[in-house]
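Worked Example 4.2. Consider the chain below.
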Amino acid sequence: MPKIIFFLLFPIALIAQKDNFTKKITKVNGDLNKDGLADYVLVLQDTLSDNAPYKLEIYFAEANGSFKRILSSVKAIDPAFPEGKKGYYSGNAFSEITIKKGILSIENELLRGHFEHKFRYQNNNFELIGFSEVYSDGQGTMGQIDFNLSTGIRIKKTEPYGEDNFPVTKTQKKISMRPLPKLQDFAPFKTEYF
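Applying the procedure from the previous section yields the following structure tokens:
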């Protein structure tokens, strides 16, 4: 009897594990591993899921013209609806990915601003090397953060806009992180720094 139940439930378990990342959001090409071949990064979305998560996939080009998937992550980009389609909207929204000079950037929009995470392929991993954010508090202050994780220098600047005359502030802090965060383990804003 237990064998029969197993064989009846096994196909259901397989269906439950199948992802539905069928909607292609964007695809960008560029040389990520400095081998002179154009690799590509793909962002897919599961539109059947209530929170509409994204999947980031990275493919390295091979000399024979084929591509090899080397990374897949469903954590690197926050879902479109973190609390479900009928839930609270956080104000964060995936914007785009770019590849410039071998750097992979994941860009997101905020309700009042935007942020970006930059990854470089080094030490056989995609490591987080930079974070930047521009935001408004909605009450007369603009803020800007630039964090170079390679050097450890984090600069935060705030300044007033509108009629208020708050002072401009600028702080610089050294925050050493070794090893650098890896893309396969990365999720945005899981630390106070990025």
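The chain has two domains: 1-88, 112-186. Residues 2-17 form the longest helix (16 residues). Compare this with Example 4.1 before moving on.
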